[in-house]
Amino acid sequence: MEPSHCYARPGKASVQFWTIPDPYINPALGRQQQPIEVKEDATLEPIRLERARVLEGVVVDKSGKPVAGAEIRYTDTEHGGSVQDIFRSDAAGKFTLKKISPQQTLIIRARTKTAVADPVNVVPAKLKEPLRLVVDEKSAFTLCGTVITEAGKPSPKPRLD
Predict the structure, then answer these.
(1) Cα dihedral value 47, 23, 19, 6, nearest 10
(2) Among 27, 118, 134, 137, which one is most buried in terms of CB atoms within 10 A?
(3) How far apart (Å, rounded) are the C-alpha atoms in residues 34 and 24?
(4) Which domains does the chain have, with CATH numbers?
């Protein structure tokens, strides 16, 4: 395979990835890039891509019945702790998270309009069976309030997550 080339002026340069072939994940996802001092033509060490994993799970209520349409979110604790995406469980309560790093620790949460699951810490490579998230109304609560602009006026159509 022919190596990729990039051209830069002398000084500090950073490597960025714009497209990554399936089934791999972006090696720079959420990681702070260290600038490289460039003074002349150079060859970088090979950058190894990590094969992504698919994480499967199911959302059930406290009696064990599947919950359709539950919102599933995961937080990647190793790459900044931001919510990566929002997924929904299907009619059988099942969900699939794609392009997951097998070794990263995730915090996975599920909720409906009236019930939530306790957060679960997961390392995908260690899972032997689909993840089971149990939502319960006893763990849920309601927040009420008004979102206002700098002028003190109610904000039109605010969205709180």
Answers:
(1) 20
(2) 134
(3) 21
(4) 1-50 (no CATH), 52-137 (2.60.40.1120)
